[in-house]
Known about the structure:
Belongs to the MurCDEF family. It catalyses: UDP-N-acetyl-alpha-D-muramoyl-L-alanine + D-glutamate + ATP = UDP-N-acetyl-alpha-D-muramoyl-L-alanyl-D-glutamate + ADP + phosphate + H(+). Its main location: cytoplasm. This protein is α/β, with parallel strands linked by helices. It folds into 3 domains: about 90 residues, Rossmann fold (3-Layer(aba) Sandwich); about 210 residues, 3-Layer(aba) Sandwich (UDP-N-acetylmuramoyl-L-alanine:D-glutamate ligase), CATH 3.40.1190; about 130 residues, Mur ligase, C-terminal domain (Protein-Tyrosine Phosphatase, Chain A, Alpha-Beta Complex), CATH 3.90.190. Strands 7-8-6-9-10-11 form a 6-stranded parallel beta sheet, covered by helices on one side. It has a 6-stranded mixed beta sheet with strand order 15-16-20-17-18-19. Strand 10, helix 10 and strand 11 form a beta-alpha-beta unit. Helix 1 runs parallel beside helix 7, helix 6 crosses helix 12 and helix 16 packs across helix 17. The radius of gyration is 22 Å and the shape is globular. The model has no long low-confidence stretch (mean pLDDT about 95).
Amino acid sequence: MKRLVILGGGESGVGTAILGKQKGYKIFVSDKGSVSKKYKEVLLNNEIDFEENQHTESKILNADVVMKSPGIPDKVELVKKLREKGIPVISEIEFAAQFTDAKIIGITGSNGKTTTTLLVHHILKKAGLNVGVAGNIGDSFAQQVAENQYKNYVLELSSFQLDGIENFNSHIAILTNITPDHLDRYEYDFNKYIASKFRITKNQTTSDYLIYDADDEAINNWLKVNKTRAKLVPFSLEKQLEYGAYIKDNNIIINITKDIIHMPISALSIKGKHNTKNAMAATMAAQLLKVRKQTIMESLEDFEGAEHRLENVAKIRDVEYINDSKATNVNATFYALECMDKPTVWIVGGVDKGNDYNDLLALVREKVKAIVCLGLDNDKIKNTFGNVVDIIVETAGAEEAVKVSHKLAERGDVVLLSPACASFDLFDNYEDRGRQFKEAVRNL
Length: 444
């Protein structure tokens, strides 16, 4: 009986434990922190051996295979010891993929992956396909492989999940964009992060597809130097393409099958240039899976978007409140500010992952009337924008940030939470930050 050790008792860890047990592995789950009540109940109900608040090396270093949760960096001593012993350390998606024959649509990128994942899933579901959605969102991929026999999966894949793959493959891979993010995990080397994202295509064959942003410099540079066996399917807002998706006269044109799609950008339910790109990528994935043009176009018109991503919360005294808590890097916040067409009170800050705020200067100068800081260390924000914005206020929580913004905003303004940072200094995660923001707005 093979011994599967799982590091991390969260969503991916517990899902892997359920699948591993079903497939006859001897399981041990180890979490350095505490395991939440919800997951503890699942482990106890399934009679799975686990420990919390420690890693007992003697119970870990005897594994045949180790599944490491994406939040644990490779440079941790325990992971190094496992690798020195030649024990494979893989991610949940690598472990689960070997137990399903489903078609996989894998989606990665620095920004836009959640929206694109939800949009592809929405279109395929509307088309009547038997489809699950997993990866970075929803129930873990492993648990779904154990409990449902979906014929297709749409997976949102982070670079950390891709770092732990060996044989995993997506029939259709989507690469939305690559901008500097998580550089703290890649020795502050952008090229290492780019290589990590491109692992999504490493096992693709000539019958697979790689859908990518042809306007993205990092992607184009990688493709010039490296080879993939997959068929390349580009999309662009800047140039007309003979094959792929592009814009002409404010229409999206998609030219990858005999059935050419023409759709006005104005018909899309999600707004902004970045969402036009997300819609192009999702549409091409659906077309490659033979979904009818009519179904695709209807889906693009009635899709509701992701929670915490440019989500309209409320309008109070003619001031709009928008929750973009999912913007955990500068590029995501760039998109958000680009979409603002009213004077903006911008709530920003949190744990900085090596951010360069200079890219935002022009947009902030043009659109932002006041900055409300929401983090423990705001020096970089104050230094970058101090000469551009007259009002910069520091706050210590969502409620205070919303009250201050409410005082600063006048009729016709917008209050935008788009932090450009991780949330771990004051919140559990970006969802917690977004929910606290929404609650504070509703309590005004």
